[in-house]
Automatic annotation (TrEMBL):
Residues 15-176 form the Thioredoxin domain. GO terms for molecular function: peroxidase activity. The keyword Oxidoreductase applies. Keywords: Oxidoreductase, Peroxidase. Belongs to the glutathione peroxidase family. PANTHER family: GLUTATHIONE PEROXIDASE (PTHR11592:SF78). This is Glutathione peroxidase. The keyword Oxidoreductase applies.
């Protein structure tokens, strides 16, 4: 079954046959599986995160986007990932506590996942095929790679890790 934290599964489709974010489920840090079908009708930013990364201060900007645009139908799905320099070694409880204490995070963190390789979450395989990186690469290069999903559940755009959250605001507003 692979890693214990491989937390996103497809409902009945593969990443290649999925059409929208609604075709996937994800796990919360406590292990509860949730359908992403409730994300249809909302604008969603999906981001792989890490607590010990140079980009970790982006949590502050993500929280600001969430507080400002959440009431208008914007959501963030943050997936901790330890694949880049071992920068997310903690347990789900440790990660959640760190984010709340240091950044006042109020949007939900999901369970830890892989975003590349043979154990990559199907959601991430789908995201990567829908919005490729530089030189049309599929792989995620680092923590805080961001994907914007429209109200119909389709991948709209991919943002590099260095893109600060406030730089995404206009694109998000255009979809709201």
């Amino acid at each position: 079954m692979g890693r214990q934290y491989g937390s996103i599964r497809r409902r009945s489709m593969t990443a290649k046959t999925a059409h929208t974010i609604a075709d996937f489920t994800a796990r919360l840090p406590g292990g509860q599986e949730v359908s992403l079908a409730d994300k249809l009708g909302k604008v969603v930013l999906v981001v792989n995160t890490a607590s010990k990364c140079g980009y970790t201060p982006q949590y502050e900007g993500l929280e600001a986007l969430w507080r400002e645009m959440g009431p208008r139908g914007f959501e963030i799905l943050a997936f901790p990932c330890n694949q880049f320099g071992g920068q997310e070694p903690g347990s789900a409880a440790e990660i959640e506590s760190f984010c709340k204490v240091n950044f006042g995070l109020s949007f939900p963190l999901m369970d830890k996942i892989d975003v590349n390789g043979p154990q990559a979450a199907p959601l991430y395989e789908w995201l990567k095929s829908g919005a490729r990186g530089i030189l049309l690469t599929r792989s995620i290069k680092w923590n805080f790679t961001k994907f914007l999903v429209d109200r119909q559940g389709r991948v709209v755009r991919r943002y590099a890790p260095k893109a600060p959250p406030h730089m995404l605001q206009q694109d998000i507003l255009a979809l709201l």
